[in-house]
Amino acid sequence: MNNKLQWELESFQHNSKSTQSLKLSYDLFQESSLLDWQHRQVLSRGFKNMGNTCFINSTLQCLLYTPPLQNIIHRCKKVFCTLCCFKRLFKSSTRIPDDFLKYLPRFSQSFSLGKQEDAHELLRFLVERMERNVVRQIFGGVLRSKVQCLNCHFESEIYENFLDISLDLSDSDLERCLANFCKNEFLDGMNLYFCAPCGVRTVACKQFIIKSPPLILTLHLKRFTNEGKKDMTHVKFPEKLNFQPYLLMPEQSIYELYAVLVHMGYSSRSGHYYSYIKGPNNEWYIANDLSVLKVNLNKVLNDRSAYILFYKKSKVEDVDSDGADISLGKKKGRCLDFKEEKLREIKKMKIRGDGKENRRVKGCDGNKI
């Protein structure tokens, strides 16, 4: 290779690295400009309850103080654009959210004034009514679902977009609920997996994991059954959430709590909603219809009726050096031994091969069981 060609190659490689570095810096700058408040305004306005509209008031407060929704530049000419409505409401001093009370019953039969509804259903409706690109940029993430046959090791992967994550109340700790969401689930017994290469139903393992995390992480605690009955489990949740254990690719990913939507009562169709909001001035408030009062963080973190948790992506250097010890399947010395227990169960099963002897199969990690 002559000197000129060598120089051009080295120059190209250097420029490529510089371009990647600039893109990364620009992406981080974009995230920071969206997630950081541009002012330090005090949260002081509540919304009047117009008759069973507490589920609307509390949901609006959480979204109103989601920084990217106010920082992102957006204009449109739609009759009802929730993002435009949020921006108008944020700048006004009204205590009655007229736009939402007017248009919600028109655009969705699920919501009628005077009737208590599920705040999570309302949240999904409001977010999905925003411009698609805005939604993906702020709330959108990608989830990978993987199924592996334990007989022939065939793998099937599906990638799905998500706007929030619904968690079973499998534990009294949020991080353990997330770990259980991402752990291997064995498909056996009545839930055998049909493996196309094998041509029969076989034992398999299934796992969800996050491929691309969102800017705004919304965690929905599945408190209500299909019949509307409520699970009263007290789920502890942190102010700073290390999301790295639940990601497909190892990367530092820290989230900071900024809003909590709470439901008090015993049914999805009754009770009362209110919310905790971290204002632009970094102070915490409880927004309960018209009442807005300052509270301390301990009160927020110890509310036993949290229903929806809102986290925003945080800079890694902002995390305390003595943050929680979190790892997938383990937390502070407690092991998640579900996989080992299921492996022992499967080891006892007799999986017939050629009719003469039992075949041993491999687990999800490739080890014989």
Structure description:
This is ubiquitinyl hydrolase 1. The chain is built from ten helices and 17 strands. The protein is of the alpha+beta class and 369 residues long. It has a domain at 31-144 and 209-318: Cysteine proteinases (Cathepsin B, Chain A, Alpha-Beta Complex). The longest helix has 33 residues, at 3-35. The radius of gyration is 24 Å and the shape is globular. The termini are far apart. The relative contact order is 0.14. The model is unreliable at 4-29, 319-343 and 346-369 (pLDDT under 50).
Short summary:
This protein has 369 residues and is α+β, with helices and mostly antiparallel strands. The chain has a domain at 31-144 and 209-318: Cysteine proteinases (Cathepsin B, Chain A, Alpha-Beta Complex). Helix content is 30%, strand content 24%.
Radius of gyration: 24 Å
- Cα end-to-end separation: 54 Å
CATH H-level name of the domain at 31-144 and 209-318... which superfamily?
Cysteine proteinases
Gross morphology:
globular
CATH-level-2 architecture of the domain at 31-144 and 209-318: Alpha-Beta Complex
User: What percent of residues are in strands?
Assistant: 15-25%
Query: Can you identify the CATH class of the domain at 31-144 and 209-318?
Result: Alpha Beta
Structure class: alpha+beta
Count of individual helical segments: 10
Helix and strand run: HHHHHHHEEEHEEEEEEEEEEHEEEEH
Q: What would the CATH topology of the domain at 31-144 and 209-318 be? A: Cathepsin B, Chain A
The average pLDDT score comes to: 82
Extended strand count: 17
As residue ranges, the low-confidence spans are 4-29, 319-343, 346-369
The helix fraction, in percent, is 25-40%
Quaternary organization: single chain
Q: What is the makeup of the main sheet?
A: 8 strands, mixed
